[in-house]
Write a structure and sequence with these properties.
homodimer; 356 residues; 434 Repressor (Amino-terminal Domain); Rossmann fold; 3 domains; six-stranded mixed sheet; elongated; transcription (chains A, B); Peripla_BP_I (chains A, B); Lambda_DNA-bd_dom_sf (chains A, B)
Chain lengths: 356, 356
């Protein structure tokens, strides 16, 4: 994907390239204005090609903001996302902004969502949905709408993003499991090409390989409870089932635990250790007591709102990649190593570097 | 609370009562129009007093709708609400409407939320928050905005609402527990004055009393995990702890189960039966296998959207109270009676009337 140049491109350039009038360009980017779909299509294509951003013009015409931030989200069954949505709505509310919700299409129908977003004069967009992130963020940026990717990133770095350090945290999970003397490792993957899944898999696998572990099983849960249950059944039915499983998020980890206990009669952590990523509400429930890499929702949302506001206030959209620091929260779903677990503010954390 | 009369009240009446010009009334109800806060306050007060609804006028001036539905919601940690939010967003999306989210203030700051809602030209409102429902729905209706109360109702019947039959379902839970030969009953109450809590408590208690049960303990969980844990500790610490607990929602029931098992070493259902209300995602997880009265999210949301659209299309807001039929989903958190449990489409339901 080629990086766009955001020079001083004007609506005249766009009109020229698209072969339409300057007024057609203006109407394309004026919410509610009349424009034929074919012309609009030409203008958007040209605007994308030369990286035209109409927001400065639009703002000079429209001093009043809509005070609406669009949020594209899916996976409401994963408790992490409702937590994020609530925190985002509350923090935006304090700034007198509100949140217009678009439910992400897991099949990745970008055009439809983009058209919906363009119907409303949103001041910014938070993309917290997997498959849409790349194309949709480019479309929005090309249309002059500030974008922040939440819990995902794109290679080009064209859009701002907020994440935890997925590679480092997943490496730490590998070290924790190695220190707990596990032997047979498995990774329950999320949607294969999602940025966080790639980073978590890479961190986990590379840290194990660096310690000489060769045979790491990778199965696909795709962030989906049913697929995860089937993949877990496959793992536990094998001749040498894993004694350590890292699931790319808590939502899948909880399913893995239920399958292990209730379908295979396995004890956790005596027979198999399970670790997740997110540290969502249910992970702390005593029925699960899941060891998990935390994603601090409040800090991540604070960073997201700050990035959005900076972009909304400014004429320029300078992408920034924010990394929020989490921790490995140690509970009882994985065997504890003999070193490295420290107690802090009522939580047990894995911080071997502080003990050595 | 006195019932408003929705006669043919005009903006002239409002202007007269408020002592302002008719144009001031019009500007108060025109989004984005200039109006001083003091004048606006006078107009809103007068409009509320005489039940003025500007929507007919506003619509004749503004043929274009905002295509925004405001949703006031809280309790995101209770999985039921994110499920509702997702379904609502998807169903509205199909009608090319989208959802602007307001996080309900549990302390019930109505004015602030109302002012925020008025900032946006929403076409309708769904109120799914406990403490705000009564006053807020009156304010919105007085301002001419269609309102649907979701999973709550108000005594006056002034606003439309969608609920399951809370009284009947809770009566059935009492019958199920009586049929299971339980002896000592407790009710884990939600927020004391919320409409669904009152209905569930009334249905449960009256059905038990009708069968001669006198001593029914009622403790307050207030829909809050920490308060619920403390109330459960109180119940299980007593000299004659209950052997049957009905919690006013699943979110509290799951907490009761965790406290029973992990703090008191009780077996479920051998030592104590627990039943919830909602049938949310986690209730079906094998770690809980909670017996619960279902609230069919899709059917409830379909009814909500239908009510909203009918009101948005029409000039008149005729309140309707829709009751959606649920079922008692029988899993393993409560002792099963020897009769009345039938298997349907992979689920076990309590339907004694069909067996007798």
């Amino acid at each position: 994907m080629k990086r766009k140049t955001f020079g001083p491109v004007t609506s005249q350039h766009v009109a020229q390239l698209a072969g339409v009038s300057q007024s057609a360009v203006s109407r394309t980017f004026t919410p509610g204005a009349s424009i034929s779909p074919a012309t609009r299509e030409k203008v958007l294509k040209a605007a994308r090609e030369i990286g035209y951003r109409p927001n400065a013009i639009a703002r000079s015409l429209n001093t009043a903001r809509s005070r609406i931030v669009g949020v594209v989200m899916s996976y409401f069954d994963n408790q992490f996302y409702p937590q994020v949505l609530e925190a985002l709505a509350q923090q935006l509310d304090e700034l007198n902004y509100h949140l217009l919700l678009f439910v992400g299409d897991r099949d990745g129908n970008v055009d439809r969502i983009f058209d919906q977003i363009m119907q409303y004069r949103v001041d910014g967009i938070v993309l917290a949905s997997v498959s849409l992130s790349l194309e949709l963020s480019e479309e929005c940026l090309a249309a002059g709408i500030p974008v922040v990717l939440f819990n995902r990133s794109e290679e080009t770095g064209i859009a701002s993003s907020v994440n935890t350090d997925n590679v480092a945290a997943s490496r730490q999970i590998a070290e924790f499991l190695l220190a707990g003397e596990h032997k047979r490792f498995a990774y329950m993957a999320g949607v294969a090409d999602s940025s966080v899944n790639l980073a978590r898999q890479q961190g986990f696998v590379s840290a194990l390989e660096a310690k000489g572990v060769q045979d790491i099983r990778v199965v696909q849960g795709d962030y989906d409870a049913q697929k995860t249950a089937r993949a877990a059944q496959e793992l536990f039915s094998s001749s040498a089932p894993p004694d350590a499983i890292f699931a790319a998020n808590d939502h899948m980890a909880l399913t893995v635990m239920d399958v292990a206990r209730y379908e295979f009669g396995l004890r956790i952590p005596e027979d198999v250790s399970v670790i997740g990523y997110d540290d969502t509400g249910a992970s702390g429930w005593p029925s699960y007591a899941l060891t998990s890499a935390s994603q601090p929702v409040t800090a991540m949302v604070t960073a997201t709102v700050a990035l959005l506001m900076k972009q909304i206030e400014s004429e320029n959209i300078e992408p920034e990649q924010v990394v929020v620091t989490g921790a490995l929260i140690v509970r009882h779903s994985a065997r504890r190593p003999h070193f490295g677990v420290v107690e802090k503010e009522g939580l047990s954390l894995f911080q071997p570097q502080e003990v050595e």
